[in-house]
Specification:
The strands form four sheets. A five-stranded parallel sheet has the order 3-2-1-7-16, covered by helices on one side. Strands 8-15-9-10-11 form a five-stranded parallel sheet, with helices on one face. The chain has two domains: about 10-150 and about 350-400, FAD/NAD(P)-binding domain (3-Layer(bba) Sandwich); about 160-305 and about 415-465, FAD/NAD(P)-binding domain (3-Layer(bba) Sandwich), CATH 3.50.50. The chain has helices at about 15-25, 45, 65-70, 85-95, 205-220, 235-240, 250-260, 335, 350-355, 380-390, 395-400, and strands at about 10, 30-35, 105-110, 110-115, 135, 140-145, 145-150, 180, 195-200, 225-230, 265-270, 270-280, 285-290, 295-300, 300-305, 360-365. With about 475 residues, it is of the alpha/beta class. The protein starts with 8 loop residues before the first strand and ends in a 72-residue tail after the last helix. The protein contains eleven helices and 16 strands. InterPro entries: Auxin_biosynth/cation_transpt, FAD/NAD-bd_sf.
């Protein structure tokens, strides 16, 4: 065994995928060190702990992690139940992190500042693959590793509001009026939204969750107004596959949202981009630019930026990465996850070969591996790390035997331009149980089967104090 092989594999992030990687490394007998910037396992998940995911427990538990937990006498939750983020941490991630096989290898408050090769900048080649990885923490401490599995995610790097990928004019000055994705509208953050006008920007499931909570709040508190703004000319992709979705809660999410918009409880702006923001008299004026080039000003109290996330590859600037120029994923993975072609339920199986970079031994996994594509599910990340760890163990047969069983979204693609107004072309439409809210784990696309009643911003929204759909 070489000196390099005696070093641990460094796992960055102790979220669901990072801990799954640690569990697989433990099963393979490979030493590891898990570096978590937060103060506990699942620190990012805790920030959306109030949200109930739309995938049941059976899709959220990694097989290797479950084997370790079962051996310790863990009582598994109802596999058909939908956990909240808080339950995901309390009932799964925390017990997993506390197992004696993993706990000694987890380090909290360990934020990675940079990754390189010991004695090698990005330019040097000869002998590079035999050099250990050098990981520098923000404290200045340096750690050596034989390989790096980067499961740090994208939660800390949300997209900006500006349509060009740059902040809108005045976006920084208006920061006090902006909310990160998935605020706790009906709980801890209620006072910031009750009786106020909120603009939600974005077309994914994060936006849908927030809009549904705001609609519930509007039914309870007079004067609470909700406006939803999207860049596309149609909200079809947000509405999704409805009853044809294999995850009923995900399908019901879009159906409820469509009902609220149709009833006027949520006002919808389509075909727009945010051009400028400016504080005015304790509120914020938003200049929206329409597709025809005309501008319109909307004055609101709060803005929820549910515009998605992007990976931060800056910590790996001295590594040799091969990133797709559009997605920010590896070139091999990008066409498999392109949201113009795939929903989160139609991503094909992929593993170590699609995740590999020219920098041998470095793998970005989980949400970070998807770049800017929002089509990620936890089950996808679990299969990624199983494949990567098998490769690190030298078991290339297992590494390349990638299999992925994902629930279909009930739609054939995520391009709203392909909407035909007919039934889904992806098979039968099972009856859905009562609606439930779900976390943003991907764009599900959709076929818009009923006419949409668009409400002008100048027209009063009806039903602001009336009842709303059951949650």
């Amino acid at each position: 065994m070489s000196a390099l092989d005696q070093l641990p594999v460094a796992v960055i992030g102790a979220g669901p995928v990072g801990l799954a990687a640690a569990a697989h490394l433990r099963e393979r007998g490979l030493p590891c060190t898990v570096l978590e910037a937060g103060d506990t396992a699942g620190a990012a998940v805790r920030q959306w702990g109030h949200v109930r995911v739309f995938s049941p427990w059976r899709y959220n538990i990694d097989p290797a992690a479950r084997r370790l937990l079962d051996d310790a006498g863990w009582v598994a939750p109802d596999l058909d139940a939908l956990p909240t983020g808080a339950e995901l941490v309390a009932d799964y991630l925390r017990p997993l992190a506390e197992l004696p096989q993993l706990k000694p290898h987890l380090r909290y408050g360990a934020r990675v500042a940079a990754i390189s090769r010991l004695g090698y900048d990005r330019l040097r080649t000869a002998g590079r693959e035999q050099a250990p990885f050098l990981i520098r923490l923000t404290t200045g401490e340096e750690i050596q590793a034989r390989a790096v599995i980067d499961a740090s995610g994208t939660w800390g790097t949300p997209n900006v509001l500006g349509a060009s990928g740059l902040p809108a004019r005045g976006e920084k000055d208006a920061a006090a009026f902006l909310e990160h994705a998935l605020p706790d509208v009906l709980g801890a953050d209620r006072d910031r939204f009750a009786g106020r006008h909120t603009l939600v920007v974005g077309a994914g499931h994060s936006a849908a969750n927030t809009l549904l909570s705001l609609a519930d709040l509007a039914a309870q508190v007079p004067g609470t107004e909700v406006t939803w703004a999207i860049r596309s000319p149609s909200p079809a992709r947000t509405y999704g596959g409805g009853d044809a979705d294999a995850l009923p809660a995900r399908g019901a999410l879009g159906s409820r949202l469509r009902d609220h918009v149709g009833a006027g409880r949520i006002r919808l702006l389509t075909g727009f981009s945010i051009h400028a923001l400016s504080p005015v008299d304790g509120r914020v004026a938003v200049v929206v630019r329409h597709a025809d080039g005309t501008d319109e000003q909307v004055v609101v109290d709060r803005i929820v930026a549910a515009t998605g996330f992007r990976p931060d590859h800056s910590i790996a600037a001295e590594l040799r990465l091969d990133l797709d120029p559009v997605m920010g994923a590896t070139r091999a993975l990008a066409p498999l996850i392109d949201p113009n072609e795939h929903s989160c339920g139609t991503v094909p199986p992929h593993g170590v070969d699609e995740l590999a970079h020219p920098e041998s031994g470095y793998y970005a996994v989980g949400m970070k591996s998807y770049g800017r594509a929002p089509t990620f599910l936890m089950a996808t990340g679990y299969e990624q790390v199983r494949s990567v760890v098998a490769a690190l163990a030298g078991d290339w047969t297992a590494a390349r035997d990638v299999q992925l069983d994902l629930p279909e979204t009930g739609v054939c693609n995520s391009d709203p331009a392909d909407s035909t107004g007919t039934d889904s072309c992806c098979g039968p439409t099972p009856a859905a149980p009562p609606a439930a809210k779900g976390l943003a784990t991907g764009i599900s696309g959709g076929l818009l089967s009923t006419p949409l009643n668009l409400i002008s911003l100048d027209a009063p929204a009806s039903g602001q104090t009336g009842g709303c759909c059951a949650g």
